[in-house]
Amino acid sequence: MDGVSGVASIIAVAQFAASIVEYIKAIVDAPLHKRKLLVAIIQARGLLLTLHELTIQVEDEDWSSTILSLSQSDGPLSTFQTTLEDIAEKLGITNSDSRMTTALHRLRWPFDQKGLEERITLLEKLKSQFSLALANDHLRLSMEIRNELRYVQTQLTESTINSRRQMINSLSREQEIIVKSLSAANISKKLDAETVVGLRASTEWFLSHEKFKEWHTTNPIQQVLVLTGVPGSGKSYLCEVVRFFVGLWHQLDSVCIASFPFHPSGQEEPSESLVLSSIVQQVLLQRPYLIEHVNALRVTGGPLSVADSVKLIMLARGDLDQLYIILDEFDICERIALRTFEILLSVKPPLNILIAGRPTILLSEALQGYPLVSIEDARPSKIIHEIVDAMIQGHLGNH
């Protein structure tokens, strides 16, 4: 590619970047994350446009060498183009006959925190290389390209693969059959959204509790929270409210929440393998792209063994920013629940685990040292009556 062709390529890439900028500006979600990506793209584009002006206005043969370094195969200009195409694909933009076409129903923020940071890191490296080009230092630019090319391309490939994986938002019929077979346990005590919202006023004390806020974090430090209360105090309904709102708050993030209540309900007492297999099932239903880990283990159905479940939970956790686990009615099957809890504690990266149950002697001893919230101590008796009334109304409303 000669200098003239290189200049033409700069103009084409800059125009493509401008189109993506306009699309991102129209997105209504995630204003802070949107701003970070906009700044990175606009700054990289600005450097290219400045370089374009210099090559036109300043007559210097050295610019040809610099432009050639930028425009070589797999060089910064090509990498910028590929990065923009990756972002466009994630945003749902198509480029047909040089005209950008958009789907209004996709004007929503599609990036999780990890994906956003990966793309911004790539753009920052490209900005550094464009700055070297502006200094007309084609020798240092060539060295920078050679040193960084492999890293940038590796990161871009991983980012593109992750982007395409996470666009898988449903299971095939065959995959769905496999996932449904992982757990036959009846854990469907989930409340409908209207009932949860009705309970919100009576459960706000827990959602705003400092110990809950510390538990509800996506940092890599193990977080365990124990919630205790006498029978009928609303522990299970608090767990349902937590499950609903944590899921709602993290709809656009790479986060999952799974729950398991230890109530036989006429069935056999649950085993560790059943609990863990149920957790895997819930994760796959929330993030279908993680089915690739099931395929890699050649799983033919469930329930899974403890070893396979742990392996799948660890693989899924490695792909997620956080995985929240709620173990409700922990006291009903104490020994099995405790063994399951110990297994979950071994998962790396760590999980955030919420345990709810009656304050029995065994649980008090086994869970000593973990942060604890007692419903009776933390909440006035008046609110207990309010939540019971809301529970009754919600139950009647479903019949």
TrEMBL record:
InterPro entries: NPHP3-like_N (IPR056884), P-loop_NTPase (IPR027417). The keyword Repeat applies. Residues 202-358 form the Nephrocystin 3-like N-terminal domain. Keywords: Repeat. This is Nephrocystin 3-like N-terminal domain-containing protein.
